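step 4 of 6: structure.
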Amino acid sequence: MSQQAVRTWRKSKKDKSLLGLKGTITSWTEVFVAPPKFESQTPYTIVLVRLDSGENVYGELVDFEKTQACIGQAVKSILRKVGTVGEEEVVEYGIKFIPV
Amino acid sequence: MNNTNAIIGYYSTQFGELWDKSLDDLIEEAFHGVLTETSLEKKQINAVFLGNMLGGVVEETLLLSAHIAECMDLHVPIYRVEAACASGGLAFQTAHEYLNSHPGETVLVLGAEKMTDVSSSEITKALASAASSEEQSVGLTFPGVYALMAQHYLHTYGFNEEHLASISVKNHAHGTLNEKAHFRRLVSIADVLESPYVAYPLKVLDSSPISDGAAALILSNDPTLIKKEKTARVLASETATDTISIAKRKRLDTLEATVISSEKAFHKSKINHSQINIMEVHDCFSIAEILALEDLGFWEKGQGGRLAKEMVTSRESGNNLIVNTSGGLKAAGHPVGGTGIKQIGEVYLQLTGKAGARQVPSSCSYGLAHNVGGSGGVAVVTILGI
C-alpha cells in the first residue's frame, strides 16, 4: 500500500522520543493468534510498560528468560524491526523492550 | 413530554457459521422476522437503526442504509451506527433518543454482522481495528488487550485461570437452552483450561466465537401499539465513552465507561440494583463478565473472581440475579453488531415470559443489558421494566 511508508515515517518521529527509556512491566500477554503482519512471529510477548516518566507504552518483550515476563519486571526500550511487510513496503522499526 | 418507549417485539436469526447467508440475507431475515412477530406492516415503521461494525472492513460494504432500503423497499430514514462490539447497543440507545423527540412513532432496531467469510487471521486484523493504532502497531490483538486486563486483574486480586474458566462453564450451560445459540454444548473447567491459548491467559474457551447473525427489535412510543402485557418499557438507555488505548487509562481493572453508563442508567430508571433479576452482560472474554459485574455495581471490586467460581449468577444457583441466560456472547455467539440487540431482546423475552425453555423460574420485573465496544471505549447500559 502506497501510504504505508508515510505512516511508518510519521510513527518513527514518536518512537525516537521513546528510545533508551527505563520502566516497569504493569501487564503482559503472549499472543498466539495474530494478524497477518505478525503471524510468522507467533507466539510473541507484548508488555505494557510504565516508563519512569509516568507514560504507559506497549511493546514486544525480547531477549528475555521466561521468568522475566512478569508484572514488576524492570525493562528498557530499544529499537527493533517490527512485523513482516510486503516486498514493496518500507521495513518498519519500532520500540521493543528488554529486561534490565 | 416524557412519553414511554416500549419494546413490542423481537426476532433473532440463528447465530453461528451461516455459510449460505450474506449480510443482506441476515438483515432481511431479521427485518421480516420481527415484522411477522409483531404483526406490523413495514409502512408502520417510521425509521430504522442498524448496528454493524465490519461491513466496511470485511465485506467492503458501506452505505448499508441503502442496502436495507433496497432489500425492504423502503424510503424512511435509516441510520447506521458503529461502535465496534457495542454497535447494536448504541443503535438501540440512538433509537431510544430519537423516539424521545418523535412522539407517536415506531422504529425498527437491527444489529447484524457477517464474520465467517474471511480467515481467522483476517478477522483478527479486522477486529483489531477497534484497538488503538499503538496497540495494533506492536502486534496486540483484541484478545491481547483483554489479556492485559486479565493478567493485571488476576495478579492484583490473587485469582487464577480457573476463576476465569467458571464464566465460560456457566454461560455454556445457559446456552444449551437457547435454540438460536452458536454453541449448545456443556463445557467443563478442565475443557476450558485445556483449550489452546489465544492470548495468555485467555484461551479459546475463554473467548466468544466468530459468528454470523442478526437480531431485530421494534421500539415504539405509539400508545395504540403498546399493549401492556406483551411489552417491556425502556426505563433507561445510557452510554459513556473512554480512551481507545487501555494504556491511557487510570486503571486496568475497571471499564470506566461501564461505571458511568451504569450510574446514569440506574439514576434515570429510579430503581436499585437489588430489583434487577435478569441481566445480559458483555462477556466477549471470560474476564469481561467479571469486570462487568463489578463495574455495573453488583459485585465489590476484587471479589469477582471468587464469585465467578461460586457461579452465583447461574440459573441453577437459586439466587435472584441470573446473568446471561442466552448463553452470553460466549455460547450464544458474537456477531458483533448483532450482540447488543440480542442482549436487549433476551431481557425482553425473559421479562415478558416468552423465553421458552430458558425462561427463568421466578417472575422478574426489571432487567439490564450491558454492551461494550472495543476494550471499553464505549459502553451502553439499558434497563427494561414491565
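step 5 of 6: annotate
 - Chain B touches chain A through 33 residues (CB under 8 Å).
 - The first strand of chain B starts at residue 6 and ends at 12.
step 6 of 6: archive
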